[in-house]
Amino acid sequence: MVNRRLLRTKAFQNLYAFRTAERADYQHYYDIISDSFLPNLDLMIPKEEQIVKLDALRKLSETHYTEVFNKKDVNEDIPVEAKTAAKKSLLMYRDAVKRDRNKIMNAMVAEVENIYNVYLKMLQLLLEINEIAVWDEQRRLVETDFRTSRLANNSVLTALKNLKNLETESIRKNVNWTTDDQNFLRKLFLDAILPDTEFQSYLRITKPTFAEDLTMVIYLVKTFILKHHLITDYFEEKDINWGENKEVLKSMMVKTFKIASVEELELQPLAMNWEDDKVYFVDLFNYVLDNEEEYEKIILDQTQNWEGDRLAMTDLLILKLGLAEMINFPSIPTKVSINEYIELAKNYSTPKSGQFINGLLDGISQKLQKEGIIRKSGRGLIDNK
């Protein structure tokens, strides 16, 4: 199931993506200032004579754009044309940043929710394998000592096929294996599953027990659906974050078949309480962006004795996420937040970043608790000292 550690990671990744888009927007709208100062070929003045004045105006406009953006002392005593072009580019830049923020925020939620769609598709894959097993036997001209159609009588797969909410959810979310996928799925069956000795041994059992049926389904899940390169390549091609998401999917698939009878078979939820987790996820992302200046000041005050070049963008984003969580989520213990962002730093920043993040967040948390900025309640008080 999706947990908050994964959500923290994805919030960090999407904040990084937003920062990258923001920098690209800045450069793009800086560059288009020059479009306002192209020679007018309809004038009687030669292009060469116009360029001297236009280049001077362009440079003034670009300087004004940079000064306003960086909130430096702005020289207002410049020609109207230069000021107007800079203002126009800044307005377009800010509109683009707003669009990017909303787009990235919506996409990150959709990406997490799509994990559930992949889970449904993996369950459907078991049923596709079932159908292909029947097809395989029907196409054979020579009968062998094992009959692939016996898989269709597997009690667990039969219960899965009859699971009404699997069908309902798949239709609602438009999740299915298409006709175009059949060649790929048949290749998986013929080249990998059919020659497998465990699979062949199961097919030789005339009347398998529930335990034997369940063991075979779990074997198919762990050996082929979760591990075989044809399947992992398929999902990896469609999801750039497959490396992270596959662990969640593995957990959901394993829990689905952790049953003592077919009556216990049911779909697993994406998370224990996805609606609450979604609010946490979106709020964490937005708190960082809405309070950047405040958080950056807190961090810089705490890093006066540290080398300035240690604050790489990844470290700064992780620190801001840690601050956002400690300040705005009173039910999460401070130590939990610090430990989570230490792990995030170890995985996504420099080798020494874990220690760096630990020292800073610990110092900042103690300071902000004394100032009453960090206030914990309920479960957030656990291990908070």
Question: What does this protein structure show overall?
Answer:
This protein is mostly helical. It has three domains: 22-105, no CATH class; 106-264, no CATH class; 291-381, Orthogonal Bundle (N-utilizing Substance Protein B Homolog, Chain A). It has helices at residues 4-31, 47-69, 80-139, 155-161, 164-172, 182-193, 197-203, 210-225, 229-238, 242-256, 274-290, 292-302, 313-328, 334-348, 353-370. Helix 3 crosses helix 10. The longest helix has 60 residues, at 80-139. It starts with a helix and ends in a 15-residue tail after the last helix. The mean pLDDT is 92.
Sequence-ordered SSE layout with sheet pairings:
Blueprint: H1 4-31, H2 47-69, H3 80-139, H4 155-161, H5 164-172, H6 182-193, H7 197-203, H8 210-225, H9 229-238, H10 242-256, H11 274-290, H12 292-302, H13 313-328, H14 334-348, H15 353-370
Helix pairs in contact: 1-3, 1-11, 1-13, 2-3, 3-6, 3-10, 11-13, 12-13, 13-14, 13-15, 14-15
